[in-house]
Amino acid sequence: MDRPLVILLVEDNEDHAMLVTLALEEVNMGYGLHWVKNGEEAMDYLYQKDMFAKTEDNPRPDLILLDLRLPLMDGHEVLKAVKESCDLKTIPVVILTSSENQGDISRAYSNYANSYLVKPMSSDLLVKMVESLGDYWLKWNRHPV
Question: How far is CA 101 from the centre of its chain?
């Protein structure tokens, strides 16, 4: 791949977004991280619309980290839209949420989530989880060209 890997973080909680960002920086794999705060922004980013219209500034992500509880368009809706799109469906989507609800888990996998992770209560554990996640998806996993 000629460009650094790109992660799209879809997270409305600023504290969680900062912890994820810091943890990914620890992995230091030379990726680009783009953070959006709601489902509508995520879809605009993915389709490079409105404020995300410049392709070089907002490249296609290689991985989406998606919270479920989002304003405007929830994570389930975003996941379904991504996995139903011929242009987007090959992008791995990892659900990163606080919901342990079995209905949410089943629904996410029914809509082809690639992984479902529950955010731990401890910020230290969240950092460890995200570091492992970054290692797996950015270092070991192979992405389609």
Answer: 19
Structural domains of the chain, count: 1
Taking the C-alpha atoms of residue 2 and residue 133, their distance in angstroms, rounded to an integer, is 22
Within 10 angstroms of residue 6's Cβ, the number of other Cβ atoms is 18
pLDDT tens for 22-36 read 877 776 667 788 999
User: Does residue 145 fall inside a structural domain?
Assistant: no
Nearest alpha-carbon partner for 85 in 128, 135, 46: 46
The residue whose two tokens read 């943890």 is 23
Domain of residue 120 covers 6-140
50-82 in b/e burial notation, b at 16+ Cβ within 10 A? eebeeeeebbebbbbbbbbebeebbbbbbbbbb
* CATH code, 56: 3.40.50.2300
The pTM score is 0.92
Q: In the structure encoding, which two tokens stand for residue 2, read together? A: 């000629």
